[in-house]
């Protein structure tokens, strides 16, 4: 996400992301902030490398925790375990706001897919980055450690569907974008 004065914000850092950022970042642009929607390995594989190569600040609900990254599962599945990264003042479990790269962000903790789940909302742009909490036509799985279907559905209703305008554009951690209104109307988990 492009901010002010050539500063950029990234949402999550999957495997290969650090190299991709180095290739596409415009000249004189800087990645200053990395926002993590949760610490599962598929969202943080390159967080440490990105932090090292760009000097960006990493923001997340909780401090780095190997258990939150599902490192044991990754090893069982033959997937490299993400390296440790430094979280700049963990955001905690309360709804909050921050200004990163000159953009006003609302931080919406969304436990349920993972205990450290969060979404990031830009009200001026009407954009929500939902991580693995909400997908087009679905929601995040809740069968991994720390998951809870009841908690996820409660959080989605309270923090997204009862709070955000229906035209809010949603960018999930996987798959196509959608809107809050479309999910309210057609997502089988929400009805």
Describe the structure.
- This protein is α/β, with parallel strands linked by helices and 191 residues long.
- The protein has one domain: Metallo-beta-lactamase, Chain A (4-Layer Sandwich).
- The protein is built from six helices and eleven strands.
- Strand 1, helix 1 (17-24) and strand 2 form a beta-alpha-beta unit.
- Helix 1 (17-24) packs parallel to helix 3.
- The chain is globular, with a radius of gyration of 16 Å.
- The two termini are 31 Å apart.
CATH homology superfamily: Ribonuclease Z/Hydroxyacylglutathione hydrolase-like
Rg over alpha carbons: 16 Å
User: What shape does the CA trace take?
Assistant: globular
Q: Beta-strand level of the residues, as a percent range? A: 15-25%
Biggest beta sheet attributes? 6 strands, mixed
What are the low-pLDDT stretches, counting only 5+ consecutive residues below 50? none
Give a count of the beta strands, DSSP E runs of length 2 or more.
11
The separation of the N and C termini measures 31 Å
Kindly provide the name of the CATH class.
Alpha Beta
Mean pLDDT metric: 94
Pairing-aware structural class of the strands and helices? alpha/beta
The neighbouring-strand order within the major sheet is: 4-5-6-7-10-11
CATH topology-level fold name: Metallo-beta-lactamase, Chain A
What's the number of structural domains?
A: 1
Name the assembly state.
single chain
Helix content: 10-25%
Q: How many helical stretches?
A: 6
Q: What CATH architecture would you give?
A: 4-Layer Sandwich
Instruction: Tell me the series of helices and strands, N- to C-terminal.
Output: EHEHHEHEEEEEEHEEH
